[in-house]
Specification:
Helix content: 25-40%
Shape: globular
Number of helices: 11
Distance between the termini: 43 Å
Number of strands: 10
Largest sheet: 10 strands, mixed
Bound molecules: ligand PBG, zinc ion
């Protein structure tokens, strides 16, 4: 029996040594909490397919923001559920729209952290599409960009710190950047959902935000799951158009794409979206006692970090931050 001279197990002998040589870290500041704010729910309403996630009425939306600050999260991202919908998604850029109001309430509640806003039309259009739709049912690109520019501007005026367009229209980043710069918001960062696949993992989110398309699907603008090269093309365009932060979405089935984006754009901040379906799967298995939720969540989030994501949008953010805090207490840190 040959005796191995090289023994990687030496560096696994104790918790202390393992911690010393660990390559990847996960901290609360890496995490961004999605917050649903609603004009139609008088009380915080739990989303049935996403246990532990609520639609918050405006008069209580300061509560999850305060919790995010308390937990030391990097920020939060707002999604709105408006009272009324129409063909143009007029609620999305209304001065007193649900997201605009939520920003005021959150600030009034004393939150000083980062507020990101999702910029899209699908929660505000009666047909549920991410943009304006032609008579023939086609999602119109350039006309939609004009709307997205207006939505992003109204979020900026309301006090958003970062705007995050998620609609995957061509030229959307350039249109929004030009709009912001033209109104004195040249210092406002833009986080683009630059690589967003047409994914079945968004299912629970569409229940949560009431934004499922009433006909057709999103495959004319969201990316085909088979494509890898195209992810770099989409990212390059967004960088050229002025995006400050890139994003890959969903996360788990696309860790290779996160790694590609990290390597192709080493100097760009990169986010990964741990989407609703990924959350629901873990919650469902944990409820049945089939998985240990805490270990699985922390392992998954660490995996996103190892793949190359600096920021992670996740519905687990508050739980994960609490568990991380408990671990550092346990280590005497
Ligand atoms: C809207 C939007 C979606 C998500 C974020 N913004 C849904 C979609 O594109 O259908 C998905 C988030 C999630 O599943 O957690 N454009
Ligand atoms: Zn959309």
């Amino acid at each position: 029996m040959p005796i191995p001279h090289l023994r990687p197990r030496r560096l696994r002998v104790s918790a202390g040594v393992r911690t010393l040589v660990r390559e990847t870290t996960l901290e609360p500041r890496n995490l961004i909490l999605p917050v649903f704010v609603s004009e139609v729910d008088p009380q915080p309403t739990e989303i049935s397919s996403m246990p532990g996630v609520f639609r918050w009425p405006l008069d209580r939306v300061a509560e999850p923001a305060a919790a995010a600050a308390e937990a030391g999260l990097g920020g939060l991202i707002l999604f709105g559920i408006p009272r009324a919908k129409d063909a143009r998604g007029s609620g999305a850029d209304a001065e007193d729209g649900v997201v605009q109001e939520a920003i005021h309430r959150i600030r009034a509640g004393g939150y000083e952290g980062v507020i990101i806003t999702d910029v899209c039309l699908c929660e505000y259009t009666e047909h549920g599409h991410c943009g304006l739709v032609s008579d023939g049912g086609e999602v119109l690109n350039d006309e939609t960009n004009d709307r997205l520019q207006s939505v992003a501007l109204s979020h900026a005026r309301a006090g958003a710190d970062i705007v995050a367009p998620s609609g995957m229209m061509d030229g959307m980043v350039a249109a929004i950047r030009a709009g912001l710069d033209g109104e004195g918001f040249s210092q406002l960062p833009l986080m683009s959902y630059s690589v967003k696949y047409a994914s079945a993992y968004y299912g629970p989110f569409r229940d949560a935000a009431d934004g499922a398309p009433s006909f057709g699907d999103r495959r004319s603008h969201q990316m085909d799951p088979g494509n890898r090269g195209e992810a770099l093309r989409e990212s390059s365009l967004d960088v050229e158009e002025g995006a400050d932060i890139l994003m890959v979405k969903p996360g788990l089935a696309y860790l290779d794409i996160i790694r590609d984006a990290r390597e192709a754009f080493p100097d760009m901040p990169l986010a990964a979206y741990n989407v609703s379906g990924e959350y629901s799967m873990v919650k469902a298995a944990a409820e049945r006692g089939w998985l240990d939720e805490r270990s699985v969540v922390l392992e998954t989030l660490l995996g996103f970090r190892r793949a190359g994501a600096g920021l992670i949008l996740t519905y687990h953010a508050l739980d994960a931050a609490r568990w991380l805090a408990e671990e550092s207490v346990g280590k005497g840190a």
